[in-house]
Amino acid sequence: MEFHSNLKAVVTHADGTTTEYNLGSGLVTTVGVAFLANDFAGVSGDITTINYHDSGTGVVAAAIGDVGLGTGTGNARVAGTQTSPAGGQYRTVAVLSYTAAHAITEWALLSALTAGTLWDRKVFAAINVVSGDGIQFTYTLTCNSGG
Question: 3-state class of 27 per DSSP?
Fold first, then answer.
């Protein structure tokens, strides 16, 4: 089996205009893979909890050893809406709202509203937001058989 992830973002600006970004593939972490294996084994965890979106301003490249964002914005994580749009796909969509100006450069998907296990992290070119803006993040994980 192999995983392929894709992250998209749609910024809704305070003035009502929108800007779309295809941010590409993220990086599934070592702790995320361990979380999945432990859930399969019935040891701990519940993979369905991997549904909390967060964003930050960190610029250090994503690495498999990551356990969280580089630099969070201080905003609360948001639970996504989960679907399976096609066979072998998992999708979660959430809107993160901002009350201050930030240069958003990273995104993460985690297992809890606070703390939790980091499943996937992506670092990208800055998406500038101001108070009243929101970013809708759409994460799609495709699991292919074989391998």
Answer: strand
